[in-house]
Specification:
Distance between the termini of chain B: 41 Å
Oligomer: heterodimer
Radius of gyration of chain B: 14 Å
Distance between the termini of chain A: 36 Å
Structural class of chain B: mainly beta
Number of strands of chain A: 11
Shape of chain A: globular
Number of helices of chain B: 0
Radius of gyration of chain A: 13 Å
Number of strands of chain B: 12
Strand content of chain B: over 45%
Largest interface: A-B, 25 and 21 residues
């Protein structure tokens, strides 16, 4: 089954304790990205990757890191989480094609609470 | 710069009513792509439709229809004879063909369908 898998789905942590949210897709998609969803603000892109070893900042990258060492995986790293990073996080992937018009396939979301 | 506006924050209807969700976009590109996604209460994000800027044909899929009008920069979504299962947050998104691959999402419209 084609899917994007995120883990953990739910996490409560404390300020400053490093954490990683994993994301894996089995569709051989070149493009992967991370979004955060907050009430009233919709979906905002954190980082994206056009292919292996190619990552770039989205609209709200501060406080986050990513890596793309393999095509299927795109982990989101919070080196020193703070309460303002409490949010619902989505990983997404897409087939780029010639024009990069592919729709996004989303993971189920990871709800993170930073105390 | 690309921008998507979903002016309706929340819409409440009674089952079997027709409802239209508005989406207005801004872009300087002549080639671009528009999307609608659905986020039901369970939280996942599901792709509904993609439309490119050269195809102004309206589309119908069962009770769902989409009206794309370049003259007014709108890509509205209509649900005919709404059902409780249509209750969700709906996001409109825009991706320009040039530049970095960062689709822009509207802030979403929450649709509540009452039995």
């Amino acid at each position: 089954e084609a899917q994007v898998t995120q883990n953990p789905r739910y996490l409560i942590t404390v300020t400053g304790k490093k954490l990683t949210v994993t994301c894996s897709q089995n569709m051989n998609h070149e493009y992967m990205s991370w979004y955060r969803q907050d009430p009233g603000l919709g979906l905002r892109q954190i980082y994206y990757s056009m292919n292996v070893e190619a990552t770039d900042k989205g609209d709200v990258p501060e406080g986050y890191k990513v890596s793309r060492k393999e095509k299927r995986n795109f982990p989101l790293i919070l080196e020193s989480p703070s309460p303002n990073q409490t949010s619902l996080y989505f990983c997404a992937s897409s087939l780029m094609g010639l024009t990069g018009t592919g729709e996004l396939f989303f993971g189920e979301g990871s709800r993170l609470t930073v105390l | 710069a690309q921008k998507v506006t979903q002016a309706q924050t929340e819409i409440s209807v009674v089952e079997k009513e027709d409802v239209t969700l508005d989406c207005v976009y801004e872009t300087r590109d002549t080639t671009y792509y528009l999307f609608w996604y659905k986020q039901p209460p369970s939280g996942e994000l599901v792709f509904l439709i993609r439309r490119n800027s050269f195809d102004e044909q309206n589309e119908i899929s069962g009770r769902y229809s989409w009206n794309f009008q370049k003259s007014t920069s709108s890509f509205n979504f209509t649900i005919t004879a709404s059902q409780v299962v249509d209750s969700a947050v709906y996001f409109c998104a825009l991706k320009e063909s040039g530049g970095s691959y960062i689709p822009t999402f509207g802030r979403g419209t929450s649709l509540i369908v009452h039995p």
